[in-house]
Amino acid sequence: MKIQESAENYLESILMISERKGEVRSIDIVNELEFSKPSVSIAMKNLRENGYILVDKDGYITLTEKGMVIAEKMYERHKLFSRLFVSLGVDAKTAAKDACRVEHILSDETFAAIKKYITEQGLI
Question: Could you tell me the domains of the chain?
Answer without folding.
Answer: 5-69 (1.10.10.10), 75-121 (1.10.60)
